[in-house]
Design a protein that fits this description.
By secondary structure, the protein is mainly beta. It is globular.
Length: 206
């Protein structure tokens, strides 16, 4: 099992982070233990002083695919959820400044808690018309719709499958809308899909 994460897949977020709009999907990986948070706790890592939240639609892969077409891509998944891509922004800036890869800022343990899985058919609408939201201590910090993605989910699946096999149990984090920002010890994060809370995370000292 692995996490495949998409960067800059919402134009407003791409603008807030700076740099050009991507011409094709950008992706990176997180290890399986990125989703290993216990009892809804995110332990704030000691190696960073600036961890940011990035709320994202998560897609659970059902079947192994390689070089799948965009037309057939929707056949390999049936459930979605909400995930949070926690990012050590201070480490990311340092790595970018040095011209080095920045997976160190993304791929640490517990960095991708995932909410309850929801059957797409039960939502009554397609995956490209879903609302996602993140509240911190009761205040909305991020809110967006999958219809605003630069690259829709089926295009992401087809593109990724050109480079790596995507296996059952793999999770695709499909990018975050604008509004990313820091979290602090004691914060309570609540993530919503179509207005229903499906993920609750408390930020705690490690």
């Amino acid at each position: 099992m692995k996490f495949i994460c998409i960067g800059k897949n919402y134009l407003a977020h791409a603008n807030e982070m700076g740099g050009a709009k991507p011409s094709e999907p950008m992706f990176f990986f997180k290890p399986d233990n990125a989703g290993s948070s216990v009892d809804g706790i995110f332990p704030y890592p000691e190696f960073s002083s600036e961890v940011h939240h990035e709320v994202e639609l998560a897609v659970l892969i059902d079947s192994r695919v390689r070089n799948i077409s965009q037309v057939m891509a929707s056949e390999c998944y049936s459930k979605v959820s909400i995930g949070i891509d926690f990012t050590a922004r201070d480490l990311q800036r340092r790595q970018k400044k040095l011209g080095f890869p920045w997976e160190i800022s993304k791929s640490f343990e517990d960095s991708a808690p995932i909410g309850d899985w929801v059957e797409i058919d039960s939502l009554g609408k397609g995956v490209q018309n879903l609302d996602i939201e993140l509240r911190i201590n009761g205040e909305t910090r991020q809110k967006g719709s999958t219809r605003d993605m630069i690259f829709p989910i089926d295009q992401l699946v087809a593109h990724l499958s050109r480079f790596v096999s995507i296996d059952p149990g793999d999770i695709i984090l499909t990018g975050t809308p604008e509004g990313v920002g820091p979290v602090h010890i004691g914060d309570i994060l609540e993530a919503y899909l179509e207005g229903k809370k499906i993920l609750n995370v408390e930020v705690a000292a490690q």
